[in-house]
Amino acid sequence: MCLTSILCFLLLLCTSINSSSPPKLIPMPTLQPFKEGSAFRLLCSVQYGAMPLKFNWFFNSKLITYQLHDINIETREDESTLKIKNVKSENSGNYTCVVSNEFGKDSQSVMLVVKSPLKWLVEPKDLHLIHGEAGKIECKATGFPLPTVTWYKNSEIVSKNEEINIERASKNDKGVYECVADNEINESLRKMVK
């Protein structure tokens, strides 16, 4: 009889928690970077909370409509799934699932990082200057995460900018320069110029 009373009390307690409680989400995992072109799926699942539940998804604090960045959202009674068939770098950002009912709300957020390969925006070219002449060598790259650009001359760093400006060409400016674009995720882009 005592055991039956305890079980009845626990069942009553669980029922009252679910029937008049704000929702509580199961924590979302920390995500590893995704490669551009891969599929992404994020589940937002309720641990407990009174029905009915309402789910909303946000991308960088903006409410997601079903047309935003080719995102598909499927919602059931106690869970919602966000899917992206073919992730692109513009899908990188903070995703937040908010669930609410008449008693309150809960939210969980994760950061999605989409790795995209490095590409030249401005590929460095050889520069031929006469003594005393001015000129510049440019090196610009894109990718995600955004790359940093470093210029080397004879294996020593000469600049951490996207361009090298030469105000008056002299013998000291002569040599082989190498531009390296790197984001510590993708393979570096390298180009040597004279």
UniProtKB/TrEMBL annotation:
Question: Which Gene Ontology terms cover its molecular function?
Answer: cell-cell adhesion mediator activity
Q: Which domain of life is it from?
A: Eukaryota
The record's PANTHER family line, in alphabetical order, gives:
BASIGIN RELATED (PTHR10075), FASCICLIN-2 (PTHR10075:SF100)
Give a Gene Ontology cellular component term annotated to this protein. Answer: axon
Specify the signal sequence span. Answer: 1-19
Protein name in the entry? Down syndrome cell adhesion molecule-like protein Dscam2
Residue ranges spanning the membrane: these are none
Does the entry feature the keyword Signal, yes or no?
Answer: yes
Please tell me the species this chain comes from. Dinothrombium tinctorium
Q: Which InterPro entries match?
A: Ig-like_dom, Ig-like_dom_sf, Ig-like_fold, Ig_I-set, Ig_sub, Ig_sub2
Q: What is an annotated GO biological process for this record, any one?
A: dendrite self-avoidance
Answer yes or no on keyword Signal.
Answer: yes
Q: Which residues form the Ig-like domain?
A: 23-113, 117-190
Keyword list, A-Z: Immunoglobulin domain, Signal
